[in-house]
Design the sequence.
């Protein structure tokens, strides 16, 4: 069984966003002019043996790049294959809280994903805090990106210390999933995970052969094996490419199963 902790379904608005130009260049993709059927993403999952994917909405200051409504529709059309992650307008905190609650309570979304680099503001900004309180009350994780940004935006807001560390201190009940492993501050991210019971890492945007050694060592440890989730970041990296090489990491059976499946099911409360 495999759960992908970070995946997007491509839309023209998403792939044509100026901030993603560098990623499109690296992956040699061209922004589509027409809508792409959701079956393209389902096929990519099937090819890699992925059972369930956490499917992200994206909300930028300019508006939705992938809307919550689109994600809700894709989840509804393929029950059991996708679980939705909401994204909201950080500039309107109370409206954002109401939208998050609606998506969780009415559409069954499993978490919130907000990207500080997209807003050029760290997760310690006061506008995030009503959302963190709502996540705790709703029993869902806050998912974000840690580490440098491949997109053409400043990277500083992705530092695990001080930002994720401070949020975890202010909201010890909040479950936090830091995506993209935190490179080049992976050791910082591992340290924050060791320090805080409810902080996790996902490996999206990296193939196994590029995992930093300190992350692999953490995945093999008694506590670290319960703290790292597998992810692809499709369409930037295919699930097949992100899955290839996991067996060469030297994980024992328990650590491997938790990494690919068990940790995500527990963190996101997936049946």
Sequence:
């Amino acid at each position: 069984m495999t759960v992908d902790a970070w995946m997007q379904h491509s839309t023209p608005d998403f792939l044509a966003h100026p901030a993603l130009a560098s990623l499109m260049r690296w992956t040699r993709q061209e922004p589509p002019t027409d809508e792409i059927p959701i079956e393209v993403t389902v096929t990519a999952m099937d090819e890699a043996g992925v059972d369930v994917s956490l499917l992200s909405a994206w909300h930028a200051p300019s508006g939705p790049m992938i809307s919550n409504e689109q994600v809700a529709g894709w989840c509804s059309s393929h029950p059991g294959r996708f679980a939705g992650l909401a994204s909201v307008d950080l500039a309107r905190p109370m409206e954002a809280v109401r939208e998050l609650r609606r998506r969780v309570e009415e559409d069954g979304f499993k978490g919130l994903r907000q990207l500080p680099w997209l807003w050029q503001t760290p997760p310690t900004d006061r506008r995030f805090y009503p959302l963190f309180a709502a996540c705790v009350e709703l029993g869902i994780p806050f998912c974000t990106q840690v580490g440098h940004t491949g997109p053409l935006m400043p990277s500083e807001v992705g530092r695990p210390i001080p930002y994720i560390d401070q949020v975890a201190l202010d909201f010890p009940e909040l479950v936090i999933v830091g995506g993209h492993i935190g490179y080049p501050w992976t050791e910082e991210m591992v340290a924050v995970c060791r320090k805080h019971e409810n902080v996790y890492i996902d490996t999206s945007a990296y193939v196994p052969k590029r995992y930093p050694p300190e992350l692999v060592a953490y995945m093999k440890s008694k506590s670290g094996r319960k703290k790292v989730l597998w992810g692809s970041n499709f369409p930037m990296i295919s699930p097949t490419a992100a899955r290839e090489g996991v067996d060469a990491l030297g994980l024992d059976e328990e650590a491997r199963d938790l990494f690919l499946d068990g940790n995500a099911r527990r963190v996101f409360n997936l049946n």
In short: The chain has a mean pLDDT of 94. The domain at 3-267 is CATH 3.20.20.140 (TIM Barrel). The CA atoms of residues 17 and 237 lie 18 Å apart. The two ends are 13 Å apart (CA to CA).
